[in-house]
Specification:
The protein is an all-alpha fold. The protein folds into 2 domains: 1-47, Arc Repressor Mutant, subunit A (Orthogonal Bundle); 59-202. Helix content is 72%, strand content 0%. α5 packs antiparallel against α11 (186-202). The radius of gyration is 19 Å and the shape is elongated. The protein starts with 5 loop residues before the first helix and ends with a helix.
Length: 218
């Protein structure tokens, strides 16, 4: 098996260190040292921390988003009325597949994504601008699946569901070297998590003031 390039080694080490400690808590010098490269290596390949973070995000996100687009096409072709659970499964399935197929690499990336979100580096606006083509299907499908909810309520619930989805998968992925007790297999855990998230997304509404709070027309 060919030895990873210097750029790939930097990215792998940065992804792991960022996932463990946080984006701003890791020095560029520490990444170079972990990769076994000179102090100038990271600057040569990426120039800045932000460029490195974007490269890490794009490295795996583009194929994940392509897989989501494929699954959304299948969902639309299967019938006119998919459930909210169906929509959530399309959003979750590529991450679960990646974790299962790529082993530690996939689990590390999910932990990295979770850390990015926790550190405020990614949010809805960032995702919609960068990966809009893969997210365009979500709102009309949810509107059809949840006709009793306003646009603001659907958006708020989806944001919460995506946050818990990422945190749940990252928690399952764990931290290398951490003692682990008994846990569900990945597919079983994903099913439990999906049921939990769908229950929250599909629950009846007890607060109709959300539209006024967010000022989003229904």
């Amino acid at each position: 098996m060919p030895r990873p390039s210097a750029r790939e080694r930097l990215m792998d080490c940065a992804e792991e260190l960022f996932a463990q400690r946080g984006i701003d808590a890791v020095s560029l010098r520490a990444i170079n040292a972990e990769a076994g490269l000179s102090p100038a290596a990271l600057h040569y390949h990426f120039q800045t921390r932000d460029n490195l973070v974007e490269a890490l995000l794009d490295r795996r996100m583009r194929p994940l988003m392509a897989r989501r687009r494929e699954l959304f096409r299948r969902l639309r072709a299967a019938g006119p009325s998919p459930s909210a659970r169906d929509v959530l499964e399309v959003l979750m399935r590529p991450l679960v597949e990646f974790m299962a197929e790529d082993g530690e690499s996939g689990r590390r990336y999910v932990r990295f994504l979770c850390r990015l979100e926790a550190d405020g580096r990614i949010n809805r606006d960032f995702a919609s601008k960068r990966y809009a083509s893969a997210l365009v299907d979500v709102e009309p499908l949810l509107r059809a699946a949840l006709p009793g909810l306003s646009k603001a309520e659907r958006r708020t619930r989806l944001d919460l569901a995506m946050d818990f989805m990422l945190r749940g998968l990252a928690d399952w992925a764990g931290t290398p070297g951490r003692p682990e007790g008994p846990r569900l297999l990945l597919e079983d855990f994903a099913g439990v998590l999906l049921d939990f998230l769908a229950g929250g997304l599909e629950a009846g509404s007890s607060n109709r003031s959300t539209d006024r709070l967010f000022r989003i027309p229904a």
